[in-house]
Amino acid sequence: MDRDLVITVTEEESGLTYWQILKGRGFSRHLLTQIKNREDGRKKRSQEGALFSAAKAGTSFSVHIPETAPSEGILPTPMPLSIVHEDEDILVICKPSNMPVHPSIGNYENTLANALMAYYAKEETPFVFRCINRLDRDTSGLLLIAKNPLSGCLLSAQMKNRAIRREYIAVVKGVLPPSGTVDAPIARDSGSILKRTVDYLRGEHACTHYERLAYSPDMRYSLARIYLDTGRTHQIRVHMSYIGHPLPGDFLYCPDYTDYPSQPLHSYRLRFLHPVTGDELSFTAPPPFSFPPSSR
Fold first, then answer.
1. Residue among 136, 138, 250, 259 flagged as catalytic
2. Backbone angles phi, psi at 50, to 5 degrees
3. What is the pTM of this model?
4. Residue 48: is its pLDDT beyond 60?
5. Domain 3-65 has CATH 3.30.950
6. Which of 5, 28, 232, 281 is the one with CA 20 to 30 A from 255?
7. How does pLDDT run across 242-270, given as a tens digit for each residue?
8. Among the CATH numbers 3.30.2130.10, 3.10.310.40, 3.30.2350.10, 3.40.50.720, which is that of 167-267?
9. Can you tell me the distance from the alpha carbon of 286 to that of 288, in angstroms, rounded to the nearest whole number?
10. Any catalytic annotation for residue 136?
11. Calpha distance 18→52 (Å, rounded)
12. In DSSP terms, which residues pair with 182 in a beta bridge?
């Protein structure tokens, strides 16, 4: 979606060009080029309005950030959405289990992307699906969506710099130690397209921290809070399985559906800085599964 901002030059930015000011505020070179090449991209509010001229403290100028072409190949499919927060720049969604995030083979109309395309179909401006964090199909919980190119650029940088803190709630088998860290590299399993495994020769760095919150009276399950330093595919599922405490109901790593029909893994909390205002934000959503498991 298009976005219009009014920016005031600070004392620290005085003497810099407008280009340098925007770059210092996180605008990528690609985004700056888009703005520069658009006639109405930056409307000057003073005589120092040229993009490459020096700015003075207190000068205000407007920036129009144009949207790119809308996401192609994503069919709008009306589906219920659990919206936790929405403003001009971001959308925080609580995704249910058994919903893929992106369309793929066999999942063309039942994804979060399809639902959001339908949600924004009433808008006159194009919608581009920019999902900042990832969740597996069967993992429920909070997802962060960027609504324009600027928030996408700034949030992606936060993600790269590990400034977006993700906290999960999970049920694992057995009595988990009170707390711990799993620092073990993860690679694709050579015998599977989907499955991952700990591999100290081929794997990429992956680090998971956990804290046991409770264990069931029969000592069959533990409830855990899990924090990630990295974001490898299936990281929590692989690491918990690696230390002998897999998630039940996980079709790849522990296909035991006795008490949980799908993996009890939920993105419980997201903490990050708002891409435009810089405010610290924190959102939570309760897990959809019970602990201890309810009798079935």
1. 136
2. -65, 140
3. 0.87
4. no
5. no
6. 232
7. 999 999 999 999 999 999 999 999 999 99
8. 3.30.2350.10
9. 7
10. yes
11. 6
12. 208
